[in-house]
Every structure is written in C-alpha cells, then in structure tokens.
Amino acid sequence: MALVIKWNKQAFSQLIKAIEYIQQDSPANADKVKNEILQNIKNLGLHTDKYPADKFKMDNDGSFRAFELYHYRISYRLFKNEVRIIRLRHTKRNPKSY
Predict the structure, then answer these.
(1) What stretches of 1-98 adopt beta strand conformation (E)?
(2) Residue 67 in domain
(3) Pairing of β 72-78 and β 64-69
(4) What CATH number is associated with residue 66?
(5) Are 35 and 54 in contact (CB under 8 A)?
(6) CA neighbours within 13 Å on the CB side: how many for 59?
(7) Cross-strand bridge partners of residue 7
(8) How far apart are CA 81 and CA 28, in angstroms?
(9) Residue closest to 62 by CA, chosen among 52, 47, 73, 48
C-alpha cells in the first residue's frame, strides 16, 4: 500500500518559486523539471527506501531522506503512514542549512 504524500507549505512554495524562475528562461524546461520532480515524489509513496538517509541532517534517525534532481535537493521525512516533503532547494545554494 502506498504512503500518502504531504507537503509542508514552505516546501511547496519553494517548488513554485523554482518553477517560476526556470520559466523565465524556458517554459518547456520548467514543465519538464516540475513533472519529473513531482513524479519522483509521487513514487516515494511506493518506494520509501529508494533514496538514502539525508547526510546533512544532524542526529538523523534514518527517517529524514533526500535526493537530487536537476540540481534541486528534495528533502523528505518518512512517517508510519505518510511521506512529508519538507524542503526543496537548489544545490548551488547552501544545502546544509536547516
């Protein structure tokens, strides 16, 4: 059974800002990035262990995980019944700050 995907408001806002930024140069690329990020996130509900524990999260019990796609680092946390998207950040910016 797939876990429910939930977004923190901040993470969803970060996705929208990233897509708006890309759209300034290329609407086609913005759609491609958005669709692939959303598809990878959707798949997290079925494949919770696909990505490793977040190496930048201090005192990580293994429930904090992250992956990178198109220079964006997507951080999420696993709970019993859900996957919570907690952050989306460009890797050229400070990926270590929480």
Answers:
(1) 4-7, 64-69, 72-78, 82-90
(2) yes
(3) antiparallel
(4) 3.30.2310.20
(5) no
(6) 1
(7) 85
(8) 35
(9) 52
pLDDT in tens, 36-60: 999 999 999 999 889 999 998 999 9
What is the token pair recorded at 92?
């050229």
Q: Which two tokens stand for residue 72?
A: 């964006």
Tracing tokens 């800002």 back to the chain, one arrives at 17
Please give the tally of structural domains in the chain: 1
62-83 per-position pLDDT tens digit: 999 999 999 999 999 999 999 9
The residue range of the domain holding 40 is 4-90
pTM over 0.85? The answer is yes
Number of residues assigned to the chain: 98
Q: Which amino acid does the sequence have at 23?
A: Q
